[in-house]
Amino acid sequence: MTDPATDPTLDPDMRSWVPGADGHPDFPVQNLPHCVFSTPGTGVRGGMRIGDWLLDLGLIAPRLQGEPGTAMALAAAAPLNAFLAAGPGARRMVREAAFAVLTLDQLRALGESALVPLADATLHLPCAIGDYTDFYAGIHHAVKVGSLFRPDNPLLPNYKHVPIGYHGRASSVVPSGTAIHRPHGQLAGPDGPRFAPAERLDIELELGLWIGTGNAPGTPIPIQQAADHIAGYCLLNDWSARDIQAWEYQPLGPFLAKSFATSISPYVITPDALRPFRTAQAARPDGDPAPLPYLGDPADQARGALALNLEVWLSTAAMRAAGLPETRISASDARHLYWTPAQMVAHHSSNGCNLRPGDLFGSGTISGPTPGSEGSLLEATNGSKAPLTLPGGETRTFLQSGDRITLRAWAEAPGHARIGFGDCTGEIVG
Amino acid sequence: MTDPATDPTLDPDMRSWVPGADGHPDFPVQNLPHCVFSTPGTGVRGGMRIGDWLLDLGLIAPRLQGEPGTAMALAAAAPLNAFLAAGPGARRMVREAAFAVLTLDQLRALGESALVPLADATLHLPCAIGDYTDFYAGIHHAVKVGSLFRPDNPLLPNYKHVPIGYHGRASSVVPSGTAIHRPHGQLAGPDGPRFAPAERLDIELELGLWIGTGNAPGTPIPIQQAADHIAGYCLLNDWSARDIQAWEYQPLGPFLAKSFATSISPYVITPDALRPFRTAQAARPDGDPAPLPYLGDPADQARGALALNLEVWLSTAAMRAAGLPETRISASDARHLYWTPAQMVAHHSSNGCNLRPGDLFGSGTISGPTPGSEGSLLEATNGSKAPLTLPGGETRTFLQSGDRITLRAWAEAPGHARIGFGDCTGEIVG
To answer: Which residue stretches belong to region Disordered (chains A, B) (predicted)?
Structure first.
């Protein structure tokens, strides 16, 4: 792999001819995430975001020769599963070719012919998601929520050994902007359960991982190779109905409390773009048990975590009616994950379970250790005992109709261009 | 719907010209399940089992006119998701057309041109499974396993109110005959966990449900319509590593203990064929709480359960070497499910979760109330305290390398032809 310090596609001084791309807070030419989009009257197809434009890769691919042309054609086809399956080499070729088109004057005419204004496009799920798995790697979330559900036993004995996860619902993963219908469900009460709209509707701030190349059944992915199986990242809001969850989750875990909807940001942020922001794990303090060997690659522990700023923003219907802007209700960082993405991949496949290209992992809720960094309202309100006060004077424990939640993420580091993930938004209906 | 008593496709006196079909214990002309198969040198395609033959539906469809021809073309295409999506009307048309071809002398030449000997065919998964959900509706299993894990609290307070379920892994659902690789995983021990091959490898005897027409996100399926969304049934073996499960399952439920493999029988047994075997729920005794209204269709409770004989057979490598036949280790009945298939569909969609054609449900382990009817080895051996003794003198608590498990199911009732499901087999490797 190219060293981030000498990778020309990461050089912060590189300029693009695309209007507004240089200095774009999220999508300068150093980012170049993949997406699937459509415009009125056209089919869904693969693109890359640059500034406030999309590069329509199907118009670039025929102009490339050999392997880069083949890789670009895969990246131009929706859904992106086959492109993700093609692995890091194909992804790198597409990145370098797109970077050339977007930076070289002699390719500007070609590039301009393939630029679509973002405002004209609808963004879709980038992949057909075969399986969606949700991990629980945010240790501060696990401790805080555990202390609310099990005051005597907040962090279970397996937590620091096992990257805890569970299977989620793939059918209800939706792209940013999709309305979120408040679920009905069984809610416990003094006279027995009743079936009613959930009253404790919450968010979970998570990082999403896209699986690239998969593995054959019965053939685990070694930890040393696991990072190469991750094709990209997104933001993920694991909407959660806490009252449904509390009643249904024993003994087999969350089910209908989660399966009504999971929102993701539509861009596949590549490992290439994120390489400057790899860091050591922050959440495994000295004295914690060493990972078992199948999870214990020293290189992964030294550089396998990501330093990513994460934020949760809220806008209510009343705030919008009063002309008030959205307000930030949490700021966290992906460094607070106890397990790295590579450890999640190695663990998931360690029993021989086959991962497939386009599978989606959620990281688990990424709360920080301090007040104001909570990844869920359950935590932020201390189990609804301390409601949030919003601009305009409203208070919130859980989400109300018309509440609009936006997750945001960006990375910055000295000597590198800042890159962002794009919004992961959903508004509560009902 | 046609009354079973007057439905000509269920008439036990109807004869087929197919050699060996009449009196076939599992696949007489009254059954006619769907499947996906291939033969050497040909692609995968849709068929129906009759006797020890498969009817290649792609050779029949072009000879049919109008809607039946359209429906038959869907049933001829692999995977069967689009056919299942077409709903009960299309399924009925295909059943009636195939029944005519297989029973009428004047259509015999057409039928003979489309018959493939079963011995020449490889059977595949019938559908591309979007999501696999595993329920926990076998109450005798829940009580017995609960008493092993939580002696003081075997059946949790939610059990008789909520059709408990969890999301399973779709990628590792495999057709009968696929070898099952023993998983490695974290096993708890006195000196902390170690990563090793699972030692407590078990089975779970389940009924599988295939979802036909789905529902839009945010639009639950009413209980009164839920049965129409079930396109068929199969057998399902939810292989389970109990030692991995015991260590990993708190607080979010089973994960790697299950995701290495789930075996299913390859035939989609239709609700039409099973209509004579619908029965009242046996497992909800007087005094139990009434289902909440969203689960409480009286017609479903009166006739929504299935009377199905279920069996587990075991053959070990040593038994085969000694020329000993497989031995039956359990006999149960689908009537022991506490929740009906329709209740599972209504509950799953009650929060607005969208089901998609080709989704697979497992019923949960179907144990009976008496010794010899256990759906898992964990139960049959009373938590491995009472090993099974096999022909030839071997004993078993959990599965050994070379052990071959076969699930079987059949239905019979006075005045109706007996029909069967076909084997669900898997042999342990490693």
So the answer is: 1-22, 364-395
Query: Is the Cβ pair A193, B165 closer than 8 Å?
Result: no
Closest C-alpha to B228, from B207, B212, B210: B212
Q: What is the CATH number of domain A8-124?
A: 2.30.30.230
Q: Which of A131, A155, A180, A339 to mutate to test the interface with B (most CBs of B within 10 A)?
A: A131
Of these residues, B24, B34, B141, B348, which one is catalytic?
A: B141
Q: What is the mean pLDDT of residues A228-234?
A: 98
Where exactly are the structural domains of chain B?
Answer: 4-124, 132-429
> In whole angstroms, what is the distance from residue B14 CA to residue B416 CA?
11
Q: How many CA atoms lie within 13 A of B397 on its CB side?
A: 10
DSSP classification of residue B268: B
Condensed to tens digits (0 to 9), the pLDDT of residues A32-43 reads 999 999 999 999
Distance CA B204, CA B87 (A): 30
Distance from CA of A350 to the nearest CA of B (A): 7
- Judge whether B6 is closer than 8 Å to chain A, CB to CB: no
The verdict on whether B140 is a catalytic residue reads no
* Whole-number pLDDT of residue B153: 82
- Asked whether the ipTM of the predicted complex exceeds the cut of 0.90, the reply is yes
Residue B210 CA to residue A282 CA, distance in Å, equals 45
CATH of B132-429, one of 3.90.850.10, 3.30.565.10, 3.40.50.300, 3.30.390.30: 3.90.850.10
In this complex, which of A248, A254, A354 lies closest to B158 when CB atoms are compared? A248
User: From CA B262, how far away is CA B363, in angstroms rounded?
Assistant: 13
Averaged pLDDT for residues B94-112: 98
User: Which residues of chain A neighbour B254 with C-beta distances below 8 Å?
Assistant: 166, 252-253
Which residue from B45, B68, B183, B196 is spatially nearest to B121, judged by alpha carbons?
Answer: B45
Predicted local confidence at residue A3, as pLDDT = 76
pLDDT-above-90 percentage for chain B: 95
